[in-house]
Amino acid sequence: MLNKFSASAKLYMLIFITAASLIGLGIYGIDDLKKMNQNTQTLYADRVLPFQQLSNARFAYTTEIVPIGQKVKDHLLTFNEAKERVQKAIDVINTNWHDYKLTYLTPEEALLVKQTDIIKTQADKASGDLLAALDKEDVKSLDGLIQKDFSADPPPFTVKLTQLMQLQVRVGKEIFNDSNEIFRTTSKKSFFLIVASLVIALSLSFFIIKSIKKLIRNILTSSDLIKESEEKYQSLFEQASDAIFVLNAKGDFTNVNKSMCDLVGYSSGELLVMQIPDLLNVELIKANPLLYASAKPGDIALGERKVIHKNGTIIDVEINAKKFADNRVLVIARDITERKAMEAELIKAELKFRTLADKSMVGIYIVQKGKFVYVNPRFAEVFGYEPHELTDKPPVEAIIHPDYQSISNENIRRRVEGEVEGVHYEAMGKKKDGSANWVEFYGSRTLFEDEPTIIGSMIDITERKLAEDELRESEQKYKMLFDSSPMPLLMVDKNDLSIIAANTESTNLYGYTNEELLKLTIKDMRHEDDKHQVWDNFKMDLDTSSDRGIFRHVKKDGTIIYVQVIAHDILFEGKQVRLGLYNDLTEKLKAELEHQKTEANLQTILNTTDTAYALLDRNLDVLEYNDKALAFVKNEFHFEPGSGGKLFDHLPENRRSQFFEYIDAVLKGKTISYEVSYPQHEEMNIWYYVRMFPIATKGNEILGLVLAITDITERKDAEQSLQSAYERIKENIQFIREMVWKQSHILRSPLANLKGLTTMLQNDPGDEEVLGYIKVELERMDTVFIEMARDSSNDEMNYQPDLM
Hints:
By secondary structure, the protein is of the alpha+beta class. 56% of the residues lie in helices and 20% in strands.
């Protein structure tokens, strides 16, 4: 039948079929590209953007609302800072939640949104209460909110947002799969159309070849027709929406269309002087080598490649290439950069989940159809397994202690059957080696690949359980020690200063009953003038026992007492408590005051006496001294207090050994006294009377000694004067004796003569000669008496010693 057509008609038919094939391929490709573009828009507008909105809401609630109360309690934030952050977080959550609900929602998503709205209402109320507590700076209300509304981990609202985010990923994956299916179908149909077009074209070419020889001359003369045909081809080439270019055997660009220029950013003129490797760098070629040179004519190559835009950016393109008999290669390229970016984001999201889960310090598990489908390394480690050992195993039988298996099975059933969305419970676990441990489970129900799935986390609380047991025992022991303490003890709540515990000694001290004390605050115990200082004292944190000072307290009967407070902050029954020891020093302070008065009187007495006193310990360190002692050491030892060294190091060598012998004797309990002189200028000595006596306890333990030194120079001078006078008196007495002996001899002669003459005169009273002799002898005696009187007036005899 084809023989009836002319060669030109056959050529036109070939061109028509080729053009129709290209147009068909183009229309079909554009239609499918439109579908893929719609899928891409749907993926961004209805999945990626909502995912971001949900992520913003979850991040704001988890980081700016749930932990904010605890941060205020830990003094990491002020009330005003916390209030501003909570209000800002509420605005972010409401804005993103409102915008999210305006997006397209699948039926399953709409149902989950309704459930989330209910939980969000509860979360909004808790957030409002939190704002009110922060505004009032009500620590007690804040503590209650933390325990009641923000203690769940994870919070219910966060769990629901996470489920919605997981749903976005799953629906996005379905859209992505649809796009892939469109691409695969389009590729197959395009390939079929290309093959069909080639079959028809080859059939026509077979008949055309027979007529070619006859038409050579006609072809040469019909160049205008050929040119016109080429223009039509070039028009179709240029108008194609896909980038099309032709390469020769060397890889040079021989023809490029406008879409190709737009794709790579080069002009047509620039591309026609370039080679295909110019759009690739060495690394890209190594990763994906060029195969056009080794391809055979007629080979078709499909694939993906990265090319470099003129501005340096990397573009992902999908390649459809065919090599012709003349070694030219026709390449159709389509920009798939956005599609690859979406694929990369999905892969990244999956990688993030895997990375976070595998590196998490919390055990993470996924249960489907009654078996583990995933456990992270931490989950397996807690029970002594490797992750692969638990995969595909029933969870309860594998890791739960028999005593708790019924509880765990019930919690799994309730979630699988939809009775509850999530559970939180503690159970005793069973490790691989048979030993037991304690674990805490958090889990929720979701649909994954249309299958009810349990996703949850687990933490090992074995140490916490042991610590709780130890804490209970410790608190019992602590309470026993507290109640039986011989010193008054009080526990005061740091939040409101209320007394929460008091032992028997404290009731005895203040005169209240235990019940009366527990109705008071520590502020009620303080003196009226000191109450304003109480809060300032309790604002401080006391990590160790600290002496807070002495305060005036008032007993029940109004008596004012002075109390020394030693305090330490502790955590007791979940409260910040200050434990205080209240030591009554009233009597002690009175005694100290009396002692100070006595000591002052003693110092007055010591400083007005003429005796130097010094109190020394066993090391001969001076503990106390009076003014006379200070003057003595300055004068005799040239020692200044505070100059360093020991006082008795300044003793002269010739006195030191004897002095320390005395000291040793005193420290053994003896009392020593002696006199000693110290030479002064102008050959003058100063004499001191030294007494040393020990200081001992009632048990005769020698603690030190008292050194008393009295200046006895005047007394010693008087004694020496008396001694000198005594010596002189002795000399004078000897002189008198000698003089008396001398005079006695002188007087004895005239007296003997007078005695004889008197006898003679008795015999003859009128004897004148005898009377003459008597007169002579009397004159001799008178002369002797005169000489004696003269001798008695001598200076030596008149010396009188100075006894004063």
